[in-house]
């Protein structure tokens, strides 16, 4: 009987924590946000970089309230991108890591005019090393990354 003592308390804890965890699960983490904004693999097909940007920026919710001025999409698998925080990268400053190898990128820039949707982007492709901010061993969104090196 004495062993049963903790169980109601544990059950109560579970009942309190479970909804909290479910609610947390629905909120996008900084790492998930990084992937939504910056990782597209395999690369979504589009006739050219301009049309790619005009397709992907709204699709990734980067033009919801205002047109995000610039954004880089990385065309590599999520695990490969995350690895820049580990063996795939070199620590630069604080929590910033530079990738050891270049990545295929599409860089989107707002093409003048409206700052509110519908947004009009220019795009260019590039293969460059990237710089990411890492937290807890994972790339996170910090407003500036992924920086493009060189
Ligand atoms: C964009 O926002 C809508 C509405 O909030 C949501 O349903 C959708 O999942 C979001 N898309 C992405 C790629 O996060």
TrEMBL record:
**What's a Pfam family in this record?**
RnaseA
A GO MF annotation of the entry reads: endonuclease activity
The record's listing under PROSITE patterns reads: RNASE_PANCREATIC (PS00127)
Question: What residue stretches are annotated with the Ribonuclease A-domain domain?
Answer: 27-145
Q: Fetch the CDD domains from UniProt.
A: RNase_A_canonical
Gene Ontology BP terms: defense response to Gram-positive bacterium
Annotated GO CC locations: extracellular region
Q: Where is the signal peptide?
A: 1-23
| Gene3D superfamilies assigned to the protein according to its UniProt record, in alphabetical order | Ribonuclease A-like domain
Give UniProt keywords alphabetically.
Answer: Disulfide bond, Endonuclease, Hydrolase, Nuclease, Secreted, Signal
Asked if the Swiss-Prot or TrEMBL record annotates the protein with the keyword Magnesium, the reply is no
Give the chief site where it resides.
Answer: secreted
Locations listed in the record:
Secreted
The Swiss-Prot or TrEMBL record describes its family as follows: Belongs to the pancreatic ribonuclease family.
Q: What is this protein called?
A: Ribonuclease A-domain domain-containing protein
Q: Which organism is it from?
A: Gopherus agassizii (Agassiz's desert tortoise)
